[in-house]
Specification:
Layout (H helix, E strand, L loop, with lengths): L5 H17 L28 E6 L9 E6 L4 E7 L5 E4 L6 E8 L7 E8 L6 E6 L13 E3 L5 E6 L5 E6 L4 E7 L3 E7 L3 E6 L4 E7 L2 E6 L17 E2 L4 E5 L4 E6 L5 E2 L3 E2 H4 L15 E4 L5 E4 L4 E9 L8 E8 L4 E12 L3 E2 L6 E5 L5 E5 L4 E6 L6 E5 L4
Antiparallel strand pairs: 1-2, 1-30, 2-3, 4-5, 5-6, 6-7, 8-9, 9-10, 10-11, 12-13, 13-14, 14-15, 16-17, 17-18, 18-19, 18-20, 21-23, 22-23, 23-24, 24-25, 26-27, 27-28, 28-29
């Protein structure tokens, strides 16, 4: 009789034993009874001063833009919502909601276009309302594309379709209350609850007063030369009273009190505040010195009047270059408080508005760095929070 190979013999014995055991009563256990799944929604804790929103444009595939909800005290990601395409986000001043402006197409990348303003519950991250807009500007995310009044009653949406305009949305009714045409002007800088200001191509400002469903527009004289030394759109505004510090490419700071009759004070130099020579403008474009640059390159702590600006060394047309340092300046005394060296260049600076403020920077890898804004010391880092971290939004900002 021919012998089976050892391996085959072993397998045969195992199968025979299995069959034999199966013949002897209950060899197999009964199938488990599965419980019915129940879905629920976990609620986040109420919004705090150090719970921030972080805008990620995801530039390499902007359809996938998103907004992260971050606990900055723990360096912990709490949640995320979509913000596509080239979306924008703004938060209610008291943290009762946050709003995302975004654009979608019925067939993904084509078809019918829909411009939307989504209202989110800040604790469940559910959409409370999805308002269809007349349009919105499809430009890279800027804080001043989408802003809110001091009491949270109005959201201002900047649009360029078919001309420059601002759509005023009533947050109580979620309805469009007004369209304001602003030819040659762009973006919104709110002042209190009375209106907003836009910046114009000739170096002037357009002031829009809102009253009884009407918009009255006044204009300032040009205060900067957009060809020689333009100002950054990302200059910080204190929304409660409209005080704004417009920062120019060369590093001039224009203190401005926005209103129906906006007043612009004499400019002062960031470099002179640091004991240096003022940086030249476009008439001397190859001079290398410290200059402001980046994307959301500045932030203001309202209570102290401390201005945080991303700075780098470069020539005049390097205004998009990320900062290697953050300079903290006193806007009342026009003096430099400290220079904060960054571990990685950052195109973003953010700050919270509480008595113990935090500062935020980022890098090309999408890391978020969290700093003690009072001491200038780094506290923690969130590695690769996203792809393109453009700016942060804090409570009361």
């Amino acid at each position: 009789m021919r012998k089976l190979p050892t391996t085959l013999a072993t397998m045969t014995a195992f199968l025979l034993a299995t069959v034999a055991s199966g013949a002897c009563g209950n060899a197999y256990a009964d199938d488990p009874v599965l419980q019915t799944e129940e879905s629920d929604i976990i609620k986040l804790s109420p919004v705090t001063d150090h719970r921030i929103l972080v805008q990620d444009a995801v530039g390499h595939h902007a359809k996938d833009g998103r907004v992260y909800v971050v606990d900055a005290d723990k360096g912990k990601l709490l949640g995320m919502v979509q913000a596509a395409y080239n979306g924008n986000v703004v938060q209610d001043p008291k943290g009762r909601a946050f709003y995302v402006g975004e654009t979608v197409w019925s067939r993904g990348n084509r078809g019918d276009r829909a411009d939307l303003l989504a209202s989110y519950d800040p604790q469940t991250l559910e959409i409370v309302n999805d308002h269809l807009l007349p349009g919105r500007a499809l430009v890279t995310p800027k804080k001043n594309d989408l802003t809110i009044s001091s009491d949270g009653s109005r959201v201002y949406v900047y649009d360029m379709v078919p001309t420059n305009a601002v759509h005023v949305i009533d947050t109580a009714s979620h309805k469009l209350s007004l369209n304001v045409d602003l030819p040659g002007c762009a973006l919104t800088y709110p002042w209190g609850n009375a209106g907003f200001t836009s910046i114009c191509a000739d170096g002037s400002l357009a002031n829009v007063s809102l009253n009884a469903g009407k918009a009255d527009v006044t204009h300032t004289k040009p205060f900067f030369d957009p060809e020689k030394d333009a100002v950054f759109e990302h200059s910080p505004t204190r929304r409660t009273d409209g005080k704004t510090w417009f920062i120019s490419y060369s590093g001039l700071v224009y203190p401005t009190a926005l209103s129906a009759q906006t007043k612009i004070d004499t400019a002062w130099s960031i470099q002179e505040a640091a004991g240096m020579k003022a940086a030249p403008a476009a008439d001397s474009p190859f001079t290398v010195t410290w200059r402001p640059g980046g994307w959301q390159l500045s932030a203001l702590h309202y209570a102290t009047g401390h201005l945080f600006v991303a700075m780098h060394q470069g020539t005049f047309w390097t205004h998009k270059t990320a900062g290697t340092e953050v300079w903290e300046l006193d806007v009342a005394t026009h003096k430099l408080i400290r220079r904060i060296k960054l571990p990685k260049p950052s195109s973003m600076v953010g700050v919270t508005q509480d008595a113990k403020p935090l500062m935020f920077t980022s890098d090309e890898a999408g890391d978020l760095f969290i700093w003690d804004a009072t001491t200038g010391k780094m506290l923690r880092k969130m590695p690769h929070l996203g792809d393109d971290l453009y700016f942060t939004v804090a409570l009361g900002e």
